Structures are given as C-alpha cells and as structure tokens.
Protein 1
Amino acid sequence: MTGLSRRSLIAGIGGTAAAVALGGCARPAASDGSTVTVMNWEALDGSAYSDVFAAFEKASGKRIKYQFAASGSDYWVKTRTVLGASNPPDLIRIDDDFVASYARTGRLHDLRDFIAASGLRESDYFPAVFGNTRQPDGSVAGWSLGIQPRVIFYNKTMFEQVGVPLPPTTWTADGWTWDDFRSAARALSIPGKRWGACVLDDSGFEMIYTVNNGGTGRWSADGRRFALADPADAAGFQWVADLTCAYGAQPRWSELQQSGRGAELFAAGQVGMIQRVSSFVNYFRENVQDFEWDIAPIPGNVTQRTYGNQIVFAIPEAAANKQGAWELLEFLTTMPGAGFFADDGAFVPGLRSAAERTTASGTEMPRSLGLVLQAADNAVLPSRVVAAQQALEVYRPALDDVRNCQATAPEVLGGLRPQIEEIIR
C-alpha cells in the first residue's frame, strides 16, 4: 500500500475539505459522447481520482468534467436534486446505504446490459463488492469500486507492557472471541487514564455485532422488518454499549462526540484497541509516534464477519452520456484503473488482482496489512430497504440513551420497532 501519506483522516472516511470543482455544474442536455460529467463528495485535489481520471482521458480520448458537491447529509440532498433534474451528471457517487431508495424511483440506470457486454466475472471480485448494488428484481443500480472493511487497530506496545496475549494476525476467532476482546479491553484499561477499547463511535458496529451474534443486522432479508430490534441483534448492540456501561473499558459516549475524537485518543496512546475502516491505516501511519501498532480481525462470536463502507457510483437514467459513463466506471473497477486506488490506499479495490497490491507493507506498520484483504472477503452483504435514510434519522438519535447508559438496547429498539417498520414498508 503505497502513497498513503497523501490521505488525511477526513479523506480516509469519505469526507473532504472545500475545493474548487472542475468543469462547473451546467452542461447541455445533449452530449456528443466526448465528455463525461462526474459528481462526487470528495475533492479531486490530492485524491487518487485525479491520476486515474488523467489515465482514462489519455486512454479514451474523452474529457472528464468533475463536480465536487457538498459532503455529509448535504450531499444526500444534492443527490436527490440532481436525480430529479432533466440534465444530471453522467456519473454520480451514491451513499451505499441509499442505493435501494434511489433505485426504487427509477432514476438510476440498470447496468446489467453493460456488465454482461463487458465480460466482467464475479469470481474476479470480492463477493460483498460485486453484489453490493444488485436489487431484489435482479437489476444493478450502481457499481462499487471497492470497500473499506472494518478491522481492529491495536496498540501492540500496550498489550506487551500489560502482558495481554496479542490478537491473531489472520481472520480467525481462535483466541479472539467476544470474551477475549472484552477481557483484553478490561486489562488494558486504567481508570482515569486510558481505556482498553473504542467501538461505540463507529456506526458500523450496529451491523457487525448484531450479525456476529446470530442476527441479520439492521433489516430482515426481505427488507420488511426492523431486525435490529430482534433479540440477538439488540443483544449485540448492548454488548458494545456494555464495554462502557458495565465494564468501564470504553470512553463514554459524551467523550466521543467531537468528530475524530476516538482516533485521536488511539493515536495518543489513550485507547488500546479501536474499530475503524481499513483506510485509517493512513491516519495512524501519519499520527502515531510513540508506540508500535498493528491490525487484528473483528472478534468472533456465533460468526465472525465485518462490514465495510463501499464506494458506489451510479449512472442516472436521464444522463446524456450513459455509454461514456459506463466506460469510465469500467475503467475505475478494472486494471489499470483499479491499481491507482490500490496504490493510494483509501479503500480496497473490489478487483482482487488490484487489491493484492495493497498488502505490500514493507517495513511500515501495520505488519499484518494482508489481513485487510481477508476482512474484505469476510464482509457481510447487508439487506437494503428503500426508506433507509428516513429510518436512520429516527432510530439512531433514539439509541443515544443506550450509548449514554440510560436505557438498554432491547427496550429502546423494541419500542422503536412499530415506527421504523411503518417507515420501511
């Protein structure tokens, strides 16, 4: 994984600072096919997109106009706006949680014919990436360039000083169960000085510890039930909260409200283990100074899976240059295009042959970098619901009482079930 110092913490999690967009927002409704307009929430400057777009322009003779739009929830609003317009960009970044919502409107182009004609083979890709955007009717509403699987980053020096056995360096639960993780977190903690673990501020935990407790995650397979309220799922959520509430081995929720606070605590040696997406390798390489660190798998229980953010792009149905958009999208997810992303390290390319380039760690930390690819292979492919955005906006704030140790997950989630299921149905 080379070129990692180019990426900051914010870029690593998909956010970005303000930047000047290339190409502007206005363009003719018709297209002669020579230009592909792309909208993304990530600034072009300093990202791998700059290099890979230049390579595409040289190889194809086409020109790319890049639109840097708003970030965070403002981007969701922007996405709805452009998809409802008569002249949207040819290719747009889509939050992977909301693909089903946009697909249901009929405003995303079905990519099945493009994929079939391209000869792309599912066996060449990580399953969770290749199948990420497939809808229940078989349509493909977008395409994922790759995944940021979650792993555990840990302070190896702290483990050795306390005499806690080190986690495994491969994807196994041998010696790395929930009980092992909790025991390590408690042993590493020193009241008033440091905490053994930090999982609570990574929203992906609500998928990981529910599925690994034998549940299905947020939604049932048919997308009609709020599965997070099921007993196994709610207990998995509670297990994470209890690292704080029952054992004092994790920072309190109030301590983690500042953006990036958990990562800062780990880099400062005040947290022994932290769950983050794999791209935080970049941030910790730049910011950890005083100890040795490495990565470990997510701890196992009934099963041992992880969950990753995916980098999804889609072609609007009203796009003027669908063919050019697909040619660019295919370039980004095959070689040599995918190789640029592998070298940059912001995410693991979905193409396995490109992803293998990310494991060339050399003498840099982490030593167990190859585990990131094993994490990608063990990523869960979640169920999707159309009204995911509306449901998240209701249930996540309500769960603050659980994070703040003022209520239990089963009682809060059980009480939310009727309202959330009305939303998603």
Protein 2
Amino acid sequence: MTAQLNPCGDVAVLVPAAGAGVRLGPGAPKALRPLAGESLLVHAVRRIAAAPSVRVIVVAAPPAETGAVRQLLAGVADVTVVPGGAHRQESVAAALRAVPAGPEIILVHDAARALAPTLLFESVGAAVRAGTDAVIPVLPVVDTIKEVSADEMVLGTVDRGTLRAVQTPQGFRRSVLAAAHAAAAGPLTDDAGLVEKHGVRVKCVPGSAYAMKITQPFDLALAEHLLATG
C-alpha cells in the first residue's frame, strides 16, 4: 500500500542513495542491498513517509538505476527520484534542487540508516520549526577514544565527555542549506559540516540506536536481528 504524504506538511526529506557501498562487499549499490527481503532504501522511505510533517521525499539514486528506483518505490510512497552525483554532497544538491516551493524545513537522511525511527524525523523537524537553523541527532560516545600518530602510536586520550556520534536525519532551514551548498568549496561527509563552514551554529538533539549506519556485513546482520526481534 502506497503511503500518503501530508500535503500540508512543511518538511521535505532528501535521501542521498547513490553510493556504491564498497565496504559491504560486491553487489548492488548500497541503498539497493537487501535487508529482510526489501532494500535498505525501501525500509528508509517507508519510515520517512510515516512522519506526519513530511510533504515531499526526494531520492538521489545511482544514475544508472533511476528508473528502477522509481519503480521500486512506486508502491511505498509518492517519491521524486533524481540522478545522484559522484559524491554525497552532489547527490544532496541534486535532490535539493528538485524540492518544489512550499516546504521550508529540509531533512537530509542517509538510506544506509534504514531503521531510523519515524519519531526521529519528527523531533529533528520540530527543532528546526522551533527556530534553529541546523539540527543534528547525536548519541554519546561510549568507547575510549585515542589520538594516534601516522605510525599508530598513541598521542593521548581524548575526553569523550565532549564528543558525540552524529546521525541522520539532519535538519535545516531551507534557505540555510541552499546557501551552504551554493558556497561549498569541496565535498564534506555531512551537511552539518557544510553549514558549519558557512558560519551556522548547529544544535544537537537525542539520536536513536536504531539510526545506526549500515556500512559493513556485520551491520546488515545486526539490522536483520533488530527487525526480527522488533
């Protein structure tokens, strides 16, 4: 059954999904890898579409798979699919250009975080709606972190009390994200880093353990277990 997005919603979600997923091993592009019988992308889009404030979803797909991705998502939600770029930043920029007039809150979400709960999209969107220009969901760092040299010798121990592990969806006021992309000088690994370089302060909100990034085969196995155990 195709999910109906809220025509009065104020949120657009961009899903960069053009990456190859080399660390997962040989196979389809990462977002199209199977998880419990469905692709990572389908799991991600289904959770996004269930968020009451979401009006628009734009997926940046592998250019050679654009038609296949449209067909894949046709029964999930009303999704706009555009060709992605060689880097994540290019994919996000392509998806942002495809957002129609209306939504003023933009969330950027990695398809590899396929199990991110719907409530997380709502909480990030709410923080932007409350007046913050940029918002990221985070988790405390629980491991001891060492700074090391090029030859793998320990230089010191980092105070983990000031560290956070960053997740997606990351939320932005539309004008802020558009300006940051327009001024971008080189690719960065996330959009919060992009707006930081543009002088924007970024607020942290609590993330979710379910928003884990599926990067390696072990992560897929863990995600399978989480789905199986509810």
Protein 3
Amino acid sequence: MTEENVTDDAAAGTESPQFALQRVYLKDLSFETPMGPEAFHRELKPQIAQELATKTNRLDETHFEVVITVTITVKDGNDTVYLIEVHQAGVFLVKGLDKSQMTHAINVLCPATLFPYAREVVDNIVIKGTFPALMLPPVNFEALFAQAVAEAKEKKEQEAESDKKDVTH
C-alpha cells in the first residue's frame, strides 16, 4: 500500500525542499583583557561596540558551513577593557530550493539559528572574565538581509547610471 503512495514531487522527478541543521560548533573564540587588573580597580563608564559578520563555505552539493563572527569591544574612554570575538559555526543541509530561496536560507535562516549560541558564548565568557553579564540583544537577520539587498541594488543602479554618462561623453 505504501509503495503506491508516490508523491507528485517524486513522480515529477523533483526533490522537495529541505533545510536542516546538521551540527553547531564553536569554531574559534578569543577573549582579551588588555587593562588586566586595572579594569577592576576603577570606576568604569563602558562603551560597547558590536560587529557582526557571516561567512559561508559550500562543503558539497547540499551541505554548507555558515560561520557568524560576533566581535564585542568594551572601552572606557580610550582604554579597551575587554575584547571578545566568537566564531560560531554550523553545518546545514540545504537542497531543493531555487536560487532566491537558497540565498535567503543561507543569509537569514542560518545566521538566525546560530546567533543564540554565539550570544550564550559571549555571556558565559564575559562572566568567567569576572565582568558583569553582557546579554546581546536579538538581531533581525531578515532586516539586515533586506538592507544588504537594497544597498546592492542601489550600487548597481548607480554604476549603470555612471556607465551611461561615460558612453554619452
């Protein structure tokens, strides 16, 4: 009976879309306290800067390694109190998606899946460095992706406009 229940996708020779997290791991971690014990003996007025980046490596036809890098720099005036950099990685199975769906999955779904792990690492390491907890706010990867797409489109339009001016002169 089950052999007769062939899906339309299988009959048509297409594969159904798949997106699955295969593994999450900490790829790299750095924590520095350049001020040393001086950081604990003065009244700090910390200024916190956060940087976020992603990198993707295609492992094979259906597997991707996505790495988000979170860099936190905490300064007191010109002095760096501490600096933490976390490279949180994951291996994802992604197949059966068209190009735009694939781009969205890699640039939005994968980093959004990994970010909570990176937040936890940052918080734990900062506490182990005996500094007050630093729970990073959530990141809207959908909005970041939409902004990056809009900026790329605008840049392409400006280059096209510039090329038109060069041709007419």
